[in-house]
Every structure is written in structure tokens, then in C-alpha cells.
Protein 1
Amino acid sequence: MGAYPPPPHPPPPAPHQGQQAAIRIALLGPRGKSLAQDWMFGNRFDGQCAIGPTQYQLLQIPIASMVQDFLEPPTENLGLAGILSVHYFGKMYRIPVDGNIGKRIPLGDSKLAIEIAEYLPHAQPTQDGRFVNRDDLPDNPVLELRVHLPGEDTPRRQLAFAKLPLLNLDAVHGRDWLWILDARPRSTAWASTNAS
């Protein structure tokens, strides 16, 4: 029996307006045979595709410290609830969630402080816009944060969603200076502030 070259992969379809990247994703069976494949296109916000029961998402990382955090994620002292990585003016601050719930944590000498108000391992939204915890399994982790800004008496509420990394409360606040990323469910939530 001779070795046969694998069939050539079809070229990507023509990109739609605004798309900047294309990645072909193939699911391989135990013997290396392609079971399913599709193209994922990215634009300035993200890219998504689903192949069978699997989902893939392409996210842009706009701050250099987030690239460092992605390439060198925390591996020690993660605790049960993980690490909150806060990126502020190009610096990364890693805060263990365990032991810091309810505490106001200053970010270096920046005069900004983050408070982890609540950790919900299996958050479920309610009709009135709140979240309740369904159980202790980390199936849908959410951190509720209070961001204490210099010169403001009332902290701003923000949420970090493990499964929806770009979902945040910026529209509620009427500003785009704060957004939450969470690229590693069950281990790390990312919070980033970008002063305007």
C-alpha cells in the first residue's frame, strides 16, 4: 500500500469587508483523519466559528501587558477561584481571588483600587439584571468588581465574565475606558482600564 498525499486544502473564501485574518480549523479523529473543518475570520473586534460541538473565538489583545499575561499565565497559587489580572497603564497586577473577596486592593501607586465584591462560580442572570450563583461548580464564573477611581466617591460596578470575555458594563457607564477580558475560564479573569 503506497502513501498518498493528503488532499489539498481548499483556499479560504473571499473575505468580507472589514475582515483582517482567516484561520482554517480542522477537527481530526484519533487516526488523524479530518472529521470537520471550517474557516474562522477575524475583524477588529473578534472572530468566531463553531464546528460540531466545539466553539472557537479569536480575540485581539490591545495592550502589551495582556500579551505577556497570555504567553506567561500564572501557574502557581491559583486557588479555587483563580487570579484576577488587572492591566492599568501598561502594568499588570495579578490578584488572587481567594482571600481577597470584599477587600479594596490598590494598584501600585496609581491611586486606582479594585474590589472583588463577589465571585460566582456558576452565575445565572436574573430578570432584574443581577446574577445569582446556581452551585459551586465553575461552569460560568463571574467576578463582580467595584472600581474605585481617584476623585470619585462612588465606585463603578464592573463584571468579568469567563465565557464572554468582551462583555462589560461600559455602555451603562457611558464611557469606553473600562473593559473586561477573561481568556482562561476557571483560572484567570482579566480586567483592563484604558484612561481616556
Note: Confidence is low (pLDDT under 50) at residues 1-7, 176-196.
Protein 2
Amino acid sequence: MLKNLYCLTRQFGGEFTSFNASQRLVSLWLKQTDELLKQRAQTRVFALLFRQKVERTMNNIINLNTTKNRKITLDKPGKYTLFFFNLCSQPEITITSENIDVNILGIYIGRKNDSFYLNTTQHHKVGKSKSNLLIKGIFFDDAKFYYEGLIKIDKNAQKTQAHQKNQNIIESPDCHIESKPFLEIKANDIICTHGSTTGQISADQLHYLQTRGMKKNQAKKLLFEGFVQEIFDIMNTSQIDKKIIEKYKKEILTLLIK
């Protein structure tokens, strides 16, 4: 403290000539010290708030299986992930702000007499935003899956990017799949894609794995896992907490072991 007082005294071009002068210097030094401590405290608070904001962004995932609201409105810029598993619902995702990037990810594993009905809407009311929907399903026995997906882009939603894809694997001739993508586009400066495929496991891939010593059921399980892995890869690139990803992955892969 004495060293700081001496430096402060020299800064103001003087010596300790009197008690009052010393007292004034001490008061000035304390004032500057208080300001410095206040600035450091503010810096720490801002850093903490920024870190919390980043963490909220990293974990900005909405599980549609647990939320009761099927109408989701995204009105703040940022990255979002909507996830669901074996969900029968009609989720409507409405985007009302620019600079929103949302992934809509779904997985279905159907066995025996399972029946799933899904109807999704990606509604872009404002431009300069992105939505990417990917739904993957694996169906056995007499399972059924009915899907309709709509991408709706309003006239003022220019510079929008919207994608919709549904991919299904069927493991029985008794499975029934209906997948119908729809577009309703009023803007003229957008990027939009949609598509649907349904088929069986590649015979070539299955044969390749079997020639490497795998049993048929083991090879199929590996191919099933690789098929749904794309969903989890997107989650990883979206910076979602890995514990959340592993939790969902474990639950889903457990059903593939049966």
C-alpha cells in the first residue's frame, strides 16, 4: 500500500508534506481502488452471464415426448434441437425471427402391431432462418407408420432454408408405411428440399459384414445402429450435452437388441 501511495504521490508531483495531504492521497487511492475492484467484479459478472448464455445455447434441446405443447414458436435467434421418439402427434414449429437454426429429429422403432401417426409443420413466417427435419424409422412384424410433413414459407420469409427428409427401413413384408411430404411456398428466394425413401437393408452391405465373420443378426444390428446414428451425429454437431445424447441413444438401441 505504501508503495502504491508513493507512486500516486509522484504521479501528482508532490511529497508527503503534511498529514492532510497524506490523507487526501489515501482517500484518492482508496477511491481508485474501489473503482478497480468494481470493474473487476463487473467483468466477472459479465463473463458468468456470457458463459450461462453459451451453456443455454449448447443445451437448447426440446424433447417433444415430455413437453405437452405441440405448438412450438421460436422467436429468438439461436440454435435449437427438437427431438422425439415413437411419438404420435402433430407438432407445429413456427419460426418468427431471423437467424434461427433448428433441427427437428425423430426416430421410430416399430414392432408387432405398433402404429404411429405423425404430422409435422415447419412454418417460416420470417426469412433468413433454417429448419432441418430428419425422421428415421425401423419397422418389424406388422408395424405401421403414417407420416405427413408440411413446409410452409410465407411471402416475406425470403432467404429461408428448409429441409425435410423421412427415411425408413422395413424388416417385414407385412409392415405398412405411408410418407407424404408437402410444400406450401409463397416466397421466391429460398432453398427448400423434401424427400422420402422406404426400403430394406442393403443386401450388399449385409453380405460384406457376413463375409467378415459376423452372424446375420449381428450384421443387421450394426447396420440398424449406423442408420440411426446420423440423428445423434447431428446432435453432436449442435453442441448438445453428450450425457443427453447418450441417454437417448441407449434407450433407442436397447429396442434394436430384441
Note: The longest strand covers residues 100-110.
Protein 3
Amino acid sequence: MYEYPSMLPQHVVQLLNQQKRDIERLEQDLQQLKKELADLKEQPKQRVEKIEYHFDQLKIEKLEGTLIIGVTPGSTGEIDEWSVNGQTEENLSFPLSKEQAEMACRIQDQIIRYLDEQGPAVLNGLQEQYQCVIGEQYKQLIIDDLKQQVNRRVRHYLQNGSAAQKNMSEEAIVEKMKQDNYKALVQHFDKRKKGEN
């Protein structure tokens, strides 16, 4: 230990000795940290190749918004996009005849009843077919989204479809809409499955 001149008061000597010990301890700590840093630099780097998210395991408190799964004019590849003076089909409104309006109400009721009664079973079948599990809230969201599109689809078949579609019977329109819904669900599950892989 270093000897300080005797003319320094004792308490100053003690303080200097304490500071010297502190400096030596800090130098040892610094050397230890340098050694650890060098060890870390020598270790092989870790890479994360793929992160998989399992959203079906999340608990969702509140889910809002509109889910568009593909049932829109043009989604089946049979209907061209309609546009008149820059307005799209959704913005154009043509009145239905009394007979068409009554038919539209009956068709809408049948399709909504079908979606409520058969929609969950259809979704369960697609889940099994695609080996893809979706939660009950997500199933209901899909069904609600399809229901929101029913009115527009019925109007499309009654007003804007080809001549063959305009002459379709009520039962034929109901069956066509069921087929369209199924095709849209299959497309949705295809996209979902491709997105997971």
C-alpha cells in the first residue's frame, strides 16, 4: 500500500486509501466486463428462421370491423364490374318492381335462415377439410359478413345479372346464392391456409 506523507491529516489518508481501493475494484470489474464481452463476441450468433403465430389461442375481448371474404360481384369470375358514369354498382340504385321486392324479401329470409342454421355446420366441415381451427367468434364474424352481403347479392340477381339470371326462379336464385357463399368460404379457407404456410 502506498504511504502518504506524514504531514497529511489521518482522515485524508484514510479517504485516499478508500478511493484507491474503490478504483482497484472498479478496474477489476472493468476487466471482468471486457472478458465477458469478448466471450459473447466469440459465441456463434443465433438466427430466428420462422416465427409462427397462433392467433386461435388468443382470447379476444372485443372484435369490431367488417370482414370481406369474397362474396362480392366479380368474386366468382362470372360477373363483370358494373360502372355507369363513374359510379360503381353499389352506388347505383334501381327500384325493384313490387313482385321483385316481395321475391327479394323471401330470398333474403331464406338465405339468412340458411346462414344461421347451416352456416356453422358448413364452416365446421371446411375446418375439418382444411385442418384449420377457427374460433366461434370468428365463425360468427364470417356468418355476419355473409348476411350483410345478402341484400346486395339478391338485388344483383334480380336487376343486374345476365338474361338467364333475370329469369331465374326464386329457388334457383337461393341455390345460386348458397353456391356463391360456399365458393367464397372455400376461397377464404384457401387464402387462410396459404397464409399459414
Note: Residues 10-42 form the longest helix (33 residues).
